[in-house]
Design brief:
The complex is a heterodimer. Chain A is an alpha/beta fold. Chain A contains 7 helices and 10 strands. Chain A has 2 domains: 151 residues, P-loop containing nucleotide triphosphate hydrolases (Rossmann fold), CATH 3.40.50.300; 66 residues, no CATH class. Chain A is globular, with a radius of gyration of 17 Å. Helices cover 75% and strands 6% of the residues of chain B. In chain B, helix 9 packs across helix 10. Classes of the chains: A alpha/beta, B mainly alpha. The interface between A and B is medium-sized, with 26 and 21 residues.
Chain lengths: 226, 305
């Protein structure tokens, strides 16, 4: 599903975010990318959704070489990957329904399909009762669940969650992780970027540990090492 | 088609859901359109005044008392054939005397002088107007021909004085016309920059939303579309408001303007009323084009996500 070969990313300030990183994630896997701040884990997530370009190496997503993906092809790529962000990134002037629907509207889905899918995904995350509210009218945990619903709307094969629990208390964080596990059980590959030790240790799934832009460990049913 | 419809819907939604920002933007675009209208209006008044000044310039040719009016009429027909000439009106001896009396305010001195002479001392005249100020040179040359030397009074001095005056007036008129166009362009450019900046600030306030839209898979055009639709709405409402304010303002200042220009008969309100549809169309086109193009460029900056 995700294949990185000798990927290096250097930011303009000459700081090396990732250096010669090679990894392969199979379809249907649940992988946690862990590491301290500045280890390069968010850069890795950004490379997967083409928010950043690698300076060296190749990146393949579902058999598509996105190393030199053209600007006009990026929307097509992103419609096939669900993304969950730490800071939620919901559209503030749109209702929960409209926020989720937006992910489908950009790919020209029909109104009938949108009317069917959006309530379904909002039900999966337990927010079917708050469909008409705006993001600032719900809690942080609920906002993150809307983001997951939006990421699920177009039934992606891959879900990238970058610190999805970073702004949440432990109860809400647990809810979000349970949701991600459920999504993974339905066959979606999940890449979880986190520095939350408890969550990683509890998951008992594959853990890739990054340190200063290098992979220092890749455990099949691992724990938080650092 | 569905994508276009969604962009329009989002644009309208964006306008209403950000109503305060929209109102402020409409207000600023409106003020700038109003400013452009005023500057163009001042230019129109200036051009009308210059045209009126030009129309009032004419060349009066005075003949000797022995020249018959029939002869003057023949010369009039001759001069009318010149392409530079608009009109050539014959002034009879009696009319000439009346004009002099009116000019002197029925002064006793003039009447006494005429009584002493016992006859009208003035010859017939010919008042010629040219299509352009430059045309007077050619007309002057026409009357300076040797065949007219004996029948035209004070030929040399009169023409030379007029010519110098006309040349000076031509230079002034051309300079003033140039200056007013440059001033219009200058102020209009400032107004356009202000509209562009307002739209830039407006879009800046939505830069994060633009980034989010891109991250969930929206294409550049799908992100741009609604912002352009909203901007067209800013331009539309701003143009309508500018027209609604411009007309009463003109109605209020028009009497003072007409008074100020007096005999030149400048009526800016009438001018605008006669062209109300064209002006409204131009305001709408300018408002929408300025706002639309501004947001097109302003959004582009935040699309590189």
């Amino acid at each position: 599903m995700v294949d990185l070969q000798h990927v290096t990313k250097i930011y303009p300030s000459h700081s090396i975010a990732l250096e010669d990183v090679t990894l392969h994630i199979e379809s249907g896997e649940f992988v946690s990318i862990v590491g301290q701040s500045g280890s390069g884990k968010t850069t890795l997530a950004k490379l997967i959704i083409a928010e950043e370009r690698p300076d060296r190496g190749t990146i393949m997503i579902g058999g598509w070489d996105i190393t030199h993906v053209k600007h006009h092809e990026i929307p097509t790529l992103r419609r096939q990957i669900g993304v969950v962000f730490q800071d939620f990134k919901l559209l503030p002037r749109k209702t929960l329904f409209e926020n989720v629907a937006f992910a489908l509207q950009v790919s020209a889905e029909t109104n009938d399909r949108i009317e069917t899918i959006v309530p379904q995904v909002l039900k999966i995350v337990g927010l079917e009762q708050k469909i008409g509210r705006y993001p600032d009218q719900i809690s942080g945990g609920e906002q993150q669940r809307v983001v997951i619903a939006r990421a699920l709307a177009h039934r992606p094969k891959l879900l990238v969650a970058d610190e999805p629990t970073g702004n949440l208390d432990s109860i809400n964080a647990q809810d979000i992780i349970n949701l991600l596990r459920k999504i993974n059980e339905f066959g979606t590959t999940v890449v979880l970027v986190t520095h939350n030790r408890e969550i990683v240790n509890m998951l008992r799934k594959r853990v890739i540990t990054l340190d200063h832009g290098h992979i220092i460990a890749d455990q099949t049913a691992g724990k938080y090492l650092l | 088609m569905i994508t276009l419809w969604r962009m329009i819907t989002f644009g309208v939604q964006h306008f209403w859901r950000n109503i305060w920002l929209s109102l402020v933007t409409v207000l600023i675009v409106m003020l700038n359109l109003f400013m452009i209208s005023l500057v163009v209006g001042i230019n129109v008044v200036g051009q009308q005044t210059l045209t009126a000044v030009k129309e009032r310039v004419n060349l009066s040719v005075y003949f000797t008392t022995t020249t018959s009016e029939q002869k003057v009429e023949e010369i009039s027909q001759e001069v009318k054939k010149k392409p530079e000439v608009t009109t050539a009106v014959v002034v009879s001896r009696a009319e000439h005397l009346d004009q002099l009396r009116q000019a002197q305010g029925q002064s006793d001195l003039i009447n006494k002088a005429i009584d002493v002479l016992g006859e009208n001392p003035l010859g017939p005249g010919l008042v010629v107007t040219a299509k352009t100020l430059d045309g007077y040179n050619a007309i002057t040359d026409f009357f300076e021909q040797a065949k007219y030397a004996s029948i035209i009074e004070d030929v040399g001095n009169n023409f030379k004085t007029n010519q110098a005056l006309i040349d000076r007036l031509t230079v002034i008129v051309n300079r003033v016309q140039h200056a007013t166009w440059w001033l219009t362009l200058f102020f209009a450019s400032i107004a356009m920059l202000m509209v562009f900046n307002t739209l830039r600030v407006n879009i800046y306030a939505h830069r994060e939303e633009i980034g989010i839209m891109k991250l969930v898979g929206a294409s550049d055009s799908f992100v741009r579309g609604p912002f352009i639709v909203s901007s067209l709405m800013y331009g539309f409402f701003a143009a309508i408001l500018a027209m609604l304010i411009l007309l009463p303002v003109l109605a209020i200042i028009n009497p003072s303007l007409t008074n100020f220009f007096g005999e030149y008969n400048i009526d800016i309100f009438q001018y605008v009323r006669d062209r109300i549809l064209i002006m409204a169309g131009l305001e709408l086109a300018l408002g929408c084009a300025l706002s639309g193009i501004s947001s097109l460029f302003a959004v582009g900056k935040y699309l590189r996500v």
